[in-house]
């Protein structure tokens, strides 16, 4: 698919922010913007199990569009999950309501790589439903705003495949890094190659940007990050670009979100492989200044604390203003520092989005 196969884009703010071009107001989207804080999402999820929504293009399209119908958002993100990859590789994943993901048979020992994972599986076949959902959604969006595709990153997926569910210490998965180093690299490499295919297929189906979620860096030491996360993030960005050029498909901006990897941000930026780095709420303004100073062609995304959406409108406006002052209005995409929580008020979300637009426009006009 090429852009000629889709309706023309009416709002390209986010793409301009990625290229460092002038923008009249700062673009904004919200991680997990399609989700349980929206009554219309809850109505659908009351009738359909989570992975059924992911696997049914008409439902995934509907849920993707819900937040962009309600709010003045500058991007849509396709409704799916990072865990569709372990599923596609042959592992069972259940989504337990109000608890989260659960793997009934997680990886326990390196031999499981030969019995619980099917290396012959191809993203283009197993995850066809994601690509169909993307094409349908981009058509239905009718150019209202760009559509983001995404994938989990290798370390985050590996940690779920071993832990089997959420974990605060990740000690089972980290045990692999320390005691089965070669097998860990084997698994991470297998995942990286699968992810490259998954992202290329999403772009080929119509995704106009892609984001890589490396959500589980908080448990890594800087050394573990440098050995088991950073090289694979870079391998993916490079692999996606090479494959796109081989297939003569235009490249799209790549966003990387390495949550809690404050120690790795300069290296990610210096790699020159990412258009956008997404920041969590722990990053200081000094670090933001440094990233800006040393990487003039990098766009930053983030980083309001999701809990700031519990604040009064008056205080939320102050937080937004401060965030815009720190990041500036150029090469910047406003977002939260992680996904939105289910008990956030729909009115405060509207206020957040509108405040980013109003205040950044006012700053640009002055
Ligand atoms: O709107 C969007 O952002 C697009 C859809 C999206 C979902 N998951 C839908 C979802 C995206 C981008 C994700 C990414 C994802 N999934 C990540 C990376 C981002 C992050 O939060 O760090 C991770 C770690 C997952 C794995 C996952 N999926 C967890 C831990 C959970 C349970 C916890 C939670 O937040 O609900 C899910 C379920 C999930 N994925 C829901 C949604 C809307 C809630 C399911 C429901 O109960 O309806």
Automatic annotation (TrEMBL):
GO terms for molecular function: uroporphyrinogen decarboxylase activity. InterPro entries: UROD/MetE-like_sf, Uroporphyrinogen_deCO2ase_HemE, Uroporphyrinogen_deCOase. Coiled coil: none annotated. Residues 27-36, 148-164 form the Uroporphyrinogen decarboxylase (URO-D) domain. This is Uroporphyrinogen decarboxylase. SUPFAM superfamilies: UROD/MetE-like (SSF51726). Catalyzes the sequential decarboxylation of the four acetate side chains of uroporphyrinogen to form coproporphyrinogen and participates in the fifth step in the heme biosynthetic pathway. Isomer I or isomer III of uroporphyrinogen may serve as substrate, but only coproporphyrinogen III can ultimately be converted to heme. In vitro also decarboxylates pentacarboxylate porphyrinogen I. Belongs to the uroporphyrinogen decarboxylase family. Its main location: cytoplasm. It catalyses: uroporphyrinogen I + 4 H(+) = coproporphyrinogen I + 4 CO2; uroporphyrinogen III + 4 H(+) = coproporphyrinogen III + 4 CO2. Its EC number is 4.1.1.37. Homodimer.
